[in-house]
Amino acid sequence: MKRTKIKELLTTTPSGQQVTVQGWVRTFRNNQFVAINDGSTIQNIQAVVDFNNTPETLLKRITTGACVSITGELVPSPAKGQPVEVKVQKLEILGDSDAEKFPLQPKKHSLEFLREIAHLRARTNTFGAVMRVRHAMAFAVHKFFNERGFVYVHTPVITGSDAEGAGAMFRVTTLDANNPPRDEQGKVDHKQDFFGRETNLTVSGQLEGETYALALGDIYTFGPTFRAENSNTTRHLAEFWMIEPEMAFYDIQDNMQLAQDFLQYLVRYALEHCAEDLEFLNKRALEEEQTKPQEQRSELSLIDRLKFVSENDFQRLSYTEAIDILRSSTPNKKKKFQYLIDEWGADLQSEHERFLVEKHFKKPVILYNYPAAIKSFYMRQNEDGKTVAAMDVLFPGIGEIIGGSQREERYDRLLKRVQELGLPDKDLWWYLELRKFGSAPHSGFGLGFERLILFVTGMTNIRDVIPFPRFPGNAEF
Ligand code: ATP
Ligand code: MG
Ligand code: MG
Ligand code: MG
Questions:
Q1: Residue 31, by phi and psi: left (phi above 0), alpha (psi -120 to 50) or beta?
Q2: Is 451 in the pocket of ligand 1 (CB under 6 A)?
Q3: Can you count the helices (H) and strands (E) in the chain?
Q4: Any bridge partners for residue 227, and if so which?
Q5: Whose CA is closest to 357, among 399, 320, 401?
Q6: What mean pLDDT, rounded, does the chain reach?
Q7: Ligand closest in space to the Cα of 232
Q8: Which atom of ligand 1 is nearest to the CA of 452?
Q9: Which enzyme class (predicted)?
């Protein structure tokens, strides 16, 4: 079965040539006009059925949702807004769809409703557009790094270490949960498990990535990442994709520059290659904005926001500078950011981040040099004895999109930090050992792929930018 994709047909000069289109019926009007979508583009193609010469039984089966194959002549379309249409000579139903029961009627459905039918929502314009943009972004990630000579390294999904020293990991085990083997003290005996130890799904490929940066120079990972945090927010998933470049001989400034270059490259790529889908998503986002109270509406449309971000430098400032700004700011008429006033060292809440990005600077912000106490053990300690060379990139409407740092490359300093925090240094022996043999200054960061997609598509819930979202209580499909 040789078909032509609709995307290609729409730019073909129509001269009555025979073509075959296969796809799903969106609408069927007047017993004559079938709008078909095949996912190659947001646009449908119109097929015109000769109903006088088509059996009634076949016409009845052309229903919204049905899968059809049509062959006919490609001709210029007299209808507005479409360059070509197909005069049907042969129509075949490949998959019937009961019109009464098909959940996707030709009307607007709420995203909440669509989330409950993740197996069918891919057939809506919104999800088609989002997934094509997602694909383009994944491709652009590889293109960017390839152009800069980075090596794509596949870090393991099952790991024996917890990079963050936090607890939010999914356990991987083959032990019988009801009746696990026990040691002499009666504790579960992990030595008898598949790997002979406790193992988890990865929360970050960074530590393994560093290993390869200290051999190949510039590397990146791009893979699924798992966090068993109670992620009932619009910005967290239990399974998400993370892009983690790691660069030898980069300091924190180089790291910040790469983060900006990378994000701007991706946004530019979307503007250049996803124009049609972005146009649609732009309209969608505008409609959604209209439902919000005036003061919460964003000043720029989605496309204007993308252009702005791709063209303007991000604001860089230290944590301490940010605190000073926040202390003297009154986000709304009544209250200041009270709790930050006395205490240097507190972690910023999303309301602070949003204030800096959306109200104060009105552009993306890179915050750096955070208090050591609120950041991870592997971040490079600054000479002030209080801060580490961490950086977070904050985006309008999103908050944190990237977290990164210059890594601590000095063995003694790192060991001391590991011990201070009571981390399991026996599990980290290999990571520490990297600092003993030819250590080098190096840096890296993690970009949450879905947060990027949120930003680029203007969608507002992270569950709507991944095909099958995983969140507490949801892993059916
Ligand atoms: P947050 O403060 O938003 O919880 P984080 O500081 O815990 O994020 P990092 O460990 O710095 O996250 O991970 C790097 C990036 O991965 C983040 O900047 C974010 O873009 C993304 N990310 C982190 N956790 C999640 C999650 N649960 N779902 C989706 N993306 C995430
Ligand atoms: Mg987190
Ligand atoms: Mg964070
Ligand atoms: Mg972070």
A1: left
A2: yes
A3: 13, 16
A4: none
A5: 399
A6: 94
A7: 1
A8: 20
A9: ligase
